[in-house]
Specification:
Elements (H helix, E strand, L loop, with lengths): L25 H17 L3 H14 L5 H12 L3 H11 L7 H13 L3 H14 L4 H13 L3 H14 L4 H11 L5 H14 L4 H17 E5 L2 E4 L22 H14 L7 H17 L2 H4 L3 H11 L3 H9 L4 H10 L1 H13 L16
Antiparallel strand pairs: 1-2
Helix pairs in contact: 1-2, 2-3, 3-4, 4-5, 5-6, 6-7, 7-8, 8-9, 9-10, 10-11, 12-13, 13-15, 13-16
Length: 363
C-alpha cells in the first residue's frame, strides 16, 4: 500500500483567522494545537500529538481534520483498530476528502481485510472520481495479486483524472519498462521524473530509462541500427467510421522510426550520444508533423528546454544516475552550466493541464 498523505499541514495555511476584541477563537486555538501536534508527530512523539489532537477536536468539533489526524497518528503507531475507529468517524463530516477513504482502505488492508479495503477505495471514488490517490491504491492492490494488467488500468486512469499526481506515472512506467511495450514507460517515466525530481524513486526511474535506451537501441554497423520499444501492431478499430482519423500503432509507426532516424551517425549508445539522439528525436518529431496528430506534452517540454539551451544538462538530469561516473565527471566540469539549468528548471517546470495531459488512451 502507499504511504498516507498527512493533511493537517493545511492548518499552517489557516493562520489568518480574525481575532475579535483580542479574544482568540476556539477554532484558532484548535489550529495552534494542531500545528504543535504536527511537529510532535513528525518527531515520532505520537502520544503527545494524540493528546493535543483530542484537545483540538473538542475545540473545533465540526472539522474533519482532527479525527482524521488522530486516525493517522494511530495508524503510524500500527494501532489499526483505533485508526479505523477514528477515520470512520471522520467520514460523516462535510469537509471530508478522499484521503480519509485512502486511510480507511489502507487500515482495512493492514487488518487483513483486503476486500473491504478495495470496496472502501471504490466508495471513495464514487464521491471523488478525480482522485489519483484512490486509483493508485486500487492499482497497488492488483499489483499485490500480480494482476499487472488490471493494475495498469487503474494507474492509467489515475493519470487521466489527476495528471499532476506523480505516483501513478511511477507505477505505470515500472510496469511498461518491464514489458515489450517500453515506449509508454519511456514517456510516463520521464514525466514522472519531472513531477517528482529529487527522490529515490526518480533516481530509480532515471536508471531504468537509461538501461532501456542501452538495451533497446543497437548499433549493428556504421549503416545499420535497430530499436525495439514496442511490438504492438494492432490498430484500434473502435472508430472505423472515421477512417480519416484512424491512428496506426504509435510505438512501431511513430516512436521507433523517429528514434531510428535520430540514431544515424552514432557508433555507440551512452549518455553522451543519447544527448544527441534525444535532441534529434525532438527535431524530427516536430519537423515530421507528428506533434499535430500525436501531440505530446513531454516532447513539447523537451523542445522548450532545447530552445532555451539546456538540453545537455536536462538529459543528464533525467538519465545521469544511469551512468553516475560520467555524470559526476561532467558535473565537475560544468558546474555553472548545471546551476543555470537548475535555476531555469525551478522556474519553468513542466505544465500539465486538462488540455495537454498525456495518457496512452489518447493515442
Amino acid at each position: 500500500m502507499i504511504k498516507i498523505i498527512k493533511i493537517i499541514g493545511i492548518l499552517l495555511l489557516l493562520t489568518t483567522f480574525q481575532i475579535v476584541n483580542g479574544q482568540t477563537t476556539d477554532k484558532q486555538k484548535a489550529i495552534e494545537k494542531g500545528k504543535e501536534a504536527v511537529r510532535l508527530m513528525d518527531n515520532g512523539r505520537y502520544e503527545e500529538s494524540i493528546k493535543l489532537l483530542k484537545e483540538a477536536q473538542q475545540l473545533d468539533p465540526k472539522s474533519f481534520i482532527y479525527p482524521y489526524e488522530l486516525a493517522y497518528a494511530f495508524y503510524m503507531q500500527k494501532d489499526y483498530k483505533k485508526a479505523k475507529k477514528y477515520v470512520e468517524s471522520s467520514l460523516k463530516y462535510k469537509d471530508v476528502n478522499e484521503n480519509a477513504y485512502q486511510l480507511l482502505g489502507n487500515t482495512y488492508d493492514y487488518l487483513g481485510k483486503s476486500e473491504k479495503a478495495i470496496k472502501t477505495y471504490e466508495k471513495g471514488l464514487k464521491l471523488f472520481p478525480n482522485s489519483g490517490n484512490l486509483y493508485l491504491e486500487l492499482g497497488v492492490m492488483q499489483m499485490k495479486n500480480k494482476e499487472y494488467l488490471n493494475a495498469l488500468q487503474y494507474f492509467e486512469k489515475g493519470i487521466e483524472v489527476e495528471p499532476n499526481f506523480p505516483s501513478n506515472y511511477y507505477w505505470a512506467a515500472k510496469i511498461f519498462l518491464s514489458s515489450s511495450e517500453e515506449v509508454w514507460g519511456m514517456i510516463y517515466g520521464e514525466i514522472f521524473i519531472n513531477l517528482e525530481p529529487t527522490t529515490k524513486r526518480s533516481t530509480e526511474i532515471g536508471k531504468l530509462l537509461y538501461k532501456t535506451y542501452k538495451n533497446e537501441i543497437k548499433v549493428i554497423s556504421d549503416t545499420s541500427y535497430s530499436v525495439s520499444f514496442s511490438k504492438n501492431t494492432t490498430i484500434n478499430i473502435n472508430n472505423l467510421e472515421d477512417l480519416n482519423n484512424l491512428k496506426p500503432p504509435y510505438g512501431v509507426t511513430i516512436y521507433e522510426p523517429t528514434l531510428m532516424f535520430s540514431i544515424i551517425g552514432q557508433k555507440v549508445i551512452d549518455i553522451n550520444t543519447l544527448i544527441t539522439i534525444r535532441s534529434k528525436f525532438v527535431d524530427n518529431y516536430f519537423s515530421n508533423g507528428h506533434d499535430k496528430q500525436y501531440p505530446n506534452l513531454l516532447f513539447s517540454y523537451q523542445k522548450q528546454i532545447k530552445d532555451a539551451g539546456h538540453f545537455e544538462a536536462y538529459t543528464y538530469f533525467v538519465l545521469g544516475k544511469g551512468d553516475d561516473d560520467t555524470f559526476q565527471k561532467w558535473l565537475s566540469e560544468n558546474e555553472e552550466k548545471w546551476q543555470i539549468f537548475i535555476d531555469w528548471f525551478v522556474n519553468n517546470k513542466i505544465n500539465i493541464n486538462e488540455s495537454n495531459k498525456f495518457y496512452r488512451g489518447k493515442y
